[in-house]
Amino acid sequence: MSDAAWLALCRISGLGPVRQQALLARFATAAACFQTGAGMLQDLGLSAKQIHALQKEPEELLTAADRRWLSSPDTDLCRWTDADYPPLLRQIPDPPPLLFIRGQRSCLVQPMLAIVGSRSASASGAITAEAFARSLGESGLCITSGLALGIDAAAHRGALTSGSVAVLGTGADLIYPRANLQLAHRLIEHGLIISEQAPETGPHSGLFPRRNRIISGLSLGVLIVEAAENSGSLITARLAMEQGREVFAVPGSIHSPLSRGPHRLIREGAKLVESAEDVLSELGPLYGALRQARPVTAPANWTPEDPRQARVWAAMDFDPLSAEEIAARCGLTLGELSAILLEMEISGYLTASPGGRFCRLPPVS
Fold first, then answer.
1. Which end of the chain is more exposed for a tag (fewer CB within 10 A), N or C?
2. Structural domain count, the chain
């Protein structure tokens, strides 16, 4: 019933991540969102059709593809309420409440770095992307990309043995482009395929920009290797900047159209990198925090050493608070607070709740 309810929420037309999160914040579980009184849904901005759909049993909304997904031993779901929901992805403005996954679930909580770029990559660009991915993967980072032709595919190839995550703009049961089908099967052995789209969702131009926010949202930073000035990779870079992630760019020849995207990003403040070490040195303490094992709960006598963390810890409670409420209590800006909350959540002292709220984890006695 529970998994069916999560999947059924995805099948309600126009019910995107923001409204799904509003429902979860109101009713706590996906199953509780269904067969509730219409009056309780009126103030959530839902349409009459959406409210009508929520009066049904979840199973009534499922397709044959949904039922196959739920019954297959090779497919899985990662729900917003799961302990291994990717911690960085929780921090973006519209995180998907449900992820459809295939492969090694343990990759969800690994520190990730995105490598993206042109679909029409040069031979040199593909070699560069593959080399960066291999070196960064061997350093402990899981490489994320979009399974597109060109730079994306090269990045996945470079990190095949260390672990790579492919984020799809289609359903996770459909590999697009089909030229990368064999690569996708190899990815599943050591890495993970992720999508927020329900099974049998085909390729559609509007879904790929949404896919890009997940690529950047999962990652500590985004590395651009070759991109034209109007490349979709620059959308991923812009989203990364908006999400507070690091943006890196590999420079190229001033004569190559594929250098214009990286050079533009460098002019706008992206870090120019020439080696994997350049990337690792910029990622800083968040990379180290993500590599450490997360404690289940904070020790009873834990005192933050960082004075800013101490202010945040003192301002919080075991009841969820919004970031705005916490910022007002401890006198920090939202930008300053966001990084602190992320470090404390990764370390296992705080947890995020639906609706962008945070609370302390109960201490160990």
1. C
2. 3
